Amino acid sequence: MLRNFFTREEGQGLVEYALILVLIAIVVIGILTLLGNKVSQVFSTINSGLNP
User: Fold this and answer.
1) Position with higher pLDDT, 33 vs 5
2) For 24, which of 8, 15, 16, 17 is 20 to 30 Å away at the CA?
3) C-alpha torsion 43→46→49→52, nearest 10
4) Which of 23, 1, 20 is nearest to 12 (CA)?
5) What is the pLDDT of residue 40?
6) pLDDT, tens digit, for every residue of 8-19?
7) How many CA atoms lie within 13 A of 46 on its CB side?
8) What does the domain layout of the chain look like in residue ranges?
9) What does 1-52 look like in DSSP terms, one character per residue?
């Protein structure tokens, strides 16, 4: 019975995918937080360059 408990893998893949998505979201949020002002400045510069 103990052997069946450890070899059961139902839902394990779903949990792994969820953890990967959470880690990716944390990384993206961190990058946007660190580089948000720089990206905003670049878009502002491009926008002002496009306006006549």
Assistant:
1) 33
2) 8
3) -70
4) 20
5) 87
6) 666 678 888 999
7) 6
8) 14-47
9) -HHHHHH--TTHHHHHHHHHHHHHHHHHHHHHHHHHHHHHHHHHHHHHHH--
